[in-house]
Amino acid sequence: MGSIVVDHLERKFGSAVAVDKISFTVEPGEIFGFLGPNGAGKTTTINMLCTLLKLTSGRAIVNNYDVVECQSDVRKSIGIIFQDASLDDKLTGLENLQFHNMLYGLSHSDFQQKSLDLVRIVDLEDRVHEVVQNYSGGMKRRLEIARGLLHDPKILFLDEPTLGLDPQTRRHIWQYLITLRDNRGVTMFMTTHYMEEAEHCDRIAIIDNGQIVGLDTPANLKSMLGGDIITVDTSDNKLSFNKMKGLTDVQTRYGPNNDLIIETKRGDQFIPEMLSLLSGSDNSNIELKSVSLRQPTLEDVFIKLTGHTIRDYDPGNKEKVRSGMRRWKGR
Amino acid sequence: MNNNFVKNLSRNLRGGYTIWYRDIVRFRRDRVRALSSLAMPVVYLFTFGSGLAPAMAEMGGGNVDFKQFMFPGVLTMTILFTSVFSAVSIVWDREFGFLKEVMVAPVSRIAVALGKVAGGTTIALLQGIIILFLAPILNISLSIDQLIVLICMMMLLALMMTSLGILIAARQKSMEGFHMLINFVLLPMFFLSGAFFPLRGVPAWMYFLSNIDPVTYGVDPLRQISLSGLVPVESLHTIAIRPLIVNVYMMIGFTVIFLIPAVWLFGKQK
């Protein structure tokens, strides 16, 4: 059985649907990523799985415990790293760990050795006696990872664990996470809206408007696209599109900036072909503005599946959900 | 939820203890806060107290010095504000994320709320005890018996006000309403309680409001006990409002009225 089994999970805030009957399974020992824009329903999902939020309908099983019926068992078996720091910054790093130890009812005698091991993993052993107030963002996040592991959880939930950190710190955090998966066999469920980071995950669910639109390994997701990606911008994209749409082994569609996105197996060979096709003999005067050729990224997968980029996002439903959430939170 | 609380009683007790312990650690660390919270009562006591003393000379048949009269008021003020502020610190914890760490721990929310009540009560009581050291300066001498009863009353007052604080903070998302809370709830409650002036002979509307003000039932016993050694019994009767035991029942009643919805609201899952 999977570490996390989610079946038609739904959450509404008022009439706005934040999570729309999603289903997926996370296997033991994998890093499972939830990739989607802000407001897509990632944090709502994580909060439901961590027993912080009620489900509207559906079912979720975490470590073989139902998140509605066995809240306490679920909580004991998971560790959570939240989007915003959740440390007491008036206490020292070690006191924060100690507090967690007490709160989870763990043995006092094991604490010393265990906390020492953990702060070593996250490279904080020199700073644990300092008040958390003096920590940098990256140090806080590392301390939270250590704290989240103190009670030996089988699953670690991470909500945007690298948000607001500099690239170097982000890389370090990822090293720790991958080490944890490999050495301790911790299953991880994380949300992110960074494409580059999602590549580190073993499997990714792409979530948009509360629905999962794709779920697979990064490599398989990328292979959904037909090989290489060529982005073309011309003086008359409509005409260019019509000229190319009949070609075999070539898929052409409009991109988010009204340019053309072409998927084809051998992009390097197709470009000359395309050039002669566009400049053709019918005096249509298509002027080429730009051409680029690259390997597909998860961003391309995202665009293909949702029709928009993860950044410039149509605020329609997202805003509705957000304002619904705000209204509802205000109660 | 209630079922869970009892089933995992030892874990929940430990959880509540942890929440309490954190408040104590933070209080110990923050010496500045402990000292600076002494400043306001002292200023009130010696400016108001000294300034109004001549005008209030007739009070209690001329047997009560106004500074001595104000002392229990100042004690109340310290306990009132410390209790409510430390309870409302839940909102800070919620805003700065720490509350989440507590909320996902395998500890019932009832235990968390009760631990917070215990923490706020303890800190308010400690602050109040610091104020007690001003008593000798004001020539208020307290016997051990008086001291014990006084501290019990202070504890009840602290418990009642912390419960009110938790009730206010239970669903609050941000500190935006905080000044509203001070200006429209705490200050009126404090002034209507008779902490700084006798409630005998005040207008009827004020007398009515002071009767529904929980703080009134905290000031009265503190005053009766701290003045009982100084003032002749008949003068004390003109200052006291109710028998001690009535005040105790009222404070217990208010605590229950605040605490039950507070714990319920705090524990409700969204």
Low-confidence stretches of chain B: none
By CATH, the architecture of the largest domain in chain A is named 3-Layer(aba) Sandwich
**Radius of gyration of chain B over all CA atoms, rounded:** 19 Å
Work out the count of structural domains of chain A.
2
Shape of chain A: elongated
Shape of chain B: elongated
Overall domain count of chain B: 1
SS class of chain B: mainly alpha
Order of helices and strands of chain B: HHHHHHHHHHHH
Oligomer class: heterodimer
Number of helices of chain A: 12
Number of helices of chain B: 12
Number of strands of chain A: 14
Taking all Cα atoms into account, the compactness measure Rg of chain A is 24 Å
What do these coordinates show?
The complex is a heterodimer of chains A (331) and B (270). Chain A is of the alpha/beta class and 331 residues long. Helices cover 38% and strands 26% of the residues of chain A. Chain A has helices at residues 42-49, 71-77, 93-103, 108-121, 137-149, 167-184, 195-198, 218-223, 237-244, 267-278, 298-306, 315-329, and strands spanning 4-13, 16-26, 31-35, 57-62, 65-66, 78-81, 155-159, 187-192, 203-208, 211-216, 228-234, 250-254, 260-264, 288-294. In chain A, helix 4 crosses helix 5 (137-149). Chain A is elongated. The model of chain A has no long low-confidence stretch (mean pLDDT 87). Chain B is mostly helical and 270 residues long. Chain B has one domain (2-267). Chain B is built from twelve helices and no strands. In chain B, helix 6 packs across helix 7 (144-169). Chain B is elongated, with a radius of gyration of 19 Å. The A-B interface holds A 50-54, 71-73, 75-76, 78, 80, 82, 84-91, 95, 99-100, 102-105, 147, 329-331 and B 4, 8, 11, 14-15, 17-18, 21-22, 25-26, 29-30, 96-108, 171, 173, 269-270.
